[in-house]
Here is the input.
Amino acid sequence: MASNDAEVKVLGTWSSPFVMRARIALNIKSVNHEFLQERLWEGKSQLLLNSNPVHKKVPVLIHGHHTICESLIIVQYIDEVWSSAPSILPSEPHERATARFWAAYLDDKWFPSMRAIGMAEGEDARRAAIGQVEEGLVLLEEEFGECSKGGPFFGGDRIGYLDIAFGCFLGWLRVTEKMSGIRLLNETNTPRLLKWAHGFCSDDAVKDVMPETEKLAEFAKMIKGRVKGATPRT
Amino acid sequence: MAVVKLLGAWLSPYCCRVIWALKLKAIPYEYIEEDLSVKSPLLLQCNPVYKRVPVLIHDGKPISESTVILRYIEEIWPQNPLLPSDPYEKAVALFWIKFADDKSPSISKLYRTDGEEQQQAAKECSEMLEIIEEHGLIEGKKFLGGDEINMVDIAFCSVAHWLGVIEEFAGLKILEPHKFPKLSSWIQNFKSVPVIKENLPDSDKMVALLKRRREMLLASKSN
Here is the structure.
């Protein structure tokens, strides 16, 4: 096993919520690490292609001579290797299962719906995507009520696995709110999440890696332009 | 003694994953077959988000989604471990389990579609198999888990059994032994493990049900 002293690097981009997960986890554990930025629009680096030959995607965690891929797997790896520092996953097995369930839900259902808002063609498609996102947020508001145990985070008093899994999407959520004119997190439907989001983004482990909404919005416009330009309309 | 119940459907590879894990660890459980056309109040209560099987109920608490269930089983009942204990090796195993989760739906798409859509599904399946053949299987090892079957082997069950059944009745040939020698060998090894062999859904029954489902799906598409 790579020793805790071995070099740690994160291969990623500043805009990717998935990359942010790895960096937040390392910050929680106070692990010194180097952030190697990929410029994906200019072509993937040889390091990325060698480290993740199956998917060729970021993030990749490089720990000594080991490479670990898939953001949630990286977070769990970090939690296990640096086990003396604050825990990220809950200690109780059923709570752990619940956290994993919701993290997978976010990746498989919720975030794709949010992306669909920006890419939707036509008002009906847009409304449908917004509806799905809002439905998901209501479920997460309820889940927060159950697992936070009165604390400011899903993990209770400290940021935990589900905070990281969900919180990394807040930058893009704010961009979506800005571009759609809809407040997805609001006092009426998601008062607890609204408060949680503020606390999460202000946390020491998060604030330096969460991109500014303006910068992300500009980036989103650029990607949309490139995607639409590249995809011929028939 | 704590009670373990499993809500499942005999045809589902995701339910088989859980059954195999429970049997490999010799955990007694009560199996409840769900009629997926009329979902029980218990299923809807236990899995309100997805309303699907499998659901494991342990000590009255439900756990949904097969991979989440497998991790839970591994943590509560560590005998006959199905994941490596070393953090890095575990991360590699989890990577392949996620790959299986992400790519396996292409296999069921094969019987749900026809024409161009089916061709696209066949292409996706082929690409998945190529990746496993090249990157997932270690030369000289019987299983994806190494010398012993583990959670990664279980996760790829759709490739081991469901793909072959669907290929046969759909008249497709994707997993050709000469193209995928390591994978073909792995399938034989996997299906020879007693717990797997004795708990695989019957191929003939599967063909009959999948054919009916396919007819219904394609009929409703053209309406």
In short: Strands of chain B lie at 4-8, 30-33, 55-58, 61-64. The longest strand of chain B covers residues 4-8. The mean pLDDT of chain B is 95.
